[in-house]
Structure formats: structure tokens, C-alpha cells
Design a protein that fits this description.
The chain folds into 2 domains: 199 residues, 2-enoyl-CoA Hydratase, Chain A, domain 1 (Alpha-Beta Complex); 51 residues, Lyase 2-enoyl-coa Hydratase, Chain  A, domain 2. It is built from 11 helices and 9 strands. The longest helix has 21 residues. Strand 2, helix 1 and strand 3 form a beta-alpha-beta unit. The chain is an alpha/beta fold. The chain is globular and about 70 Å long. Helix content is 53%, strand content 15%. Strands 1-2-3-5-7-9 form a 6-stranded mixed β-sheet, sandwiched between helices. A 3-stranded parallel β-sheet has the order 4-6-8.
Amino acid sequence: MSDLILAETRGAVALLTFNRPNKLNALSYALIDHLMEILDRIEDEEKIRAVVLTGAGDRAFSAGADIAEFSQSISCGPEVAVKQFVRRGQGMTARIEAFPKPIIAAVNGIAFGGGCEITEAVHLAVASERAVFAKPEIAIGITPTFGGTQRLPRLAGRKRALEHLLTGDSFSPQRALEMGLVNRIVPHAQLLESAFALADRITRHSHLAVARIITAATRGLNVSISEGLAIEREQFARMAATHDTREALDAWLSVRAKP
């Protein structure tokens, strides 16, 4: 199982690489379970402040769920399929979305189905000029199951999302940028460098403040504005009494005080 995801640490950033290039980095049950285990460990690692996710090989970030595997679950009936397939995938993307340390997708190629849903769930995404996206579940007679019917409309708007959900047609990184699915497009050779540079711009700040902002933004998306503001107040209150806040304020005030 350890070979399904390659993990290394570069300074304060963990690089996780889906490692099934011969299967276009398809998300098998074992790979999903292993990713969840790795994220549990990273959450407790104080020295790791951010995560970059990418795919092995020259072709794919991830082509989505392992069709041969989940089709066996479907053949066992809806209850089994929901338990083995849907809950597992939704649990993964929910964990990614709410993870207290920023997760950045470095989309190096195909991001179809579950691979696209991971891109939707991460906090930030950088796409190679070679990246290609799709919501192809309709072509095999199913709905997206890892959150794609919910997150893409929130990112792109209902009509733009439905165009891709209902046609299954692939779309370019430029289209993904227009829809808010990725933050930027970079030359393929600069993909990881750009993702790590973005991570470095975040990790220079208080990791506690980063976690509070992620929590407020993630929870606030799914509630009314008044409830969202209450969440914002709660996260501020949790942060205001910390040493990180006092240190940052004192540093800023000392610079302002200089003639």
C-alpha cells in the first residue's frame, strides 16, 4: 500500500504523489484509504505546514475512481455501493476540504471524475498547461459521487457546472481557470515549482491563523451569511488570545513606529 502514494517532505511542505501511472492514477479504495492515513499523520506533524498533491507519470493527475473496482460494489447493490464507494470518496474530499493545513493540487495532466472532484475540494490548485478536466460520470450512467454535484456549482455557478456535469465533455485548463476550479495555469515544467512557491507564500504566516481562515471559509460556504459571520467571529476569538497574534501585531507596530 505504501507504494500507492509517494510521500516526501521539502522543508515545511509535504509532497504527496498518486502513484498508479499505469492506471492513470485511478483512485482505488486502497489508495483512498492510504491517503486518509497519510493526512492523519500530517495533521499531527508540527513541522509540516502545507501539502502539495500531484500525480505520477506524464499523463494524469488522476483519471478518477477505479471503475473496475467500484463496478463490483455496484453489482452487489446500492447499499454496498454507497458504503464502499460513495461514502469512501465523499469522506476523502470532505477531509481534504476541511483539512487545517492548506492543500494545493498540482494538476499535471488528466483530472477526470474523482480527480476533478479532488481539485474542487482542495484549497488551492495550480494547473499545468497540459491539464485536462472532465466530469464524465454521466457517460457510464452514474452521478458524480465524491462531491462533484455540490462543489462545482458552488465554484462555477449552476449553469456552467451543469454544462459539464450533463455533457461529460472534457474542458481545458483555461476553462477551469474561468470557472474558479484552479488558481493559475503554468508551463508544465514549472508546475511543482509554482505549487511550492504558493505554499511558501502561505507558510510564512502563522499556521494557527491559516487553520482558522480555512475553517471559517469552509464552514461558511454552506450556511447563511449571518451564520457565516458568527463562524468568523468564533475563529477570530480563538485566534486573538494566541501568542501568534500578539507576536505578529507587535512586529507590525514596531515597524510602523520606526521613523
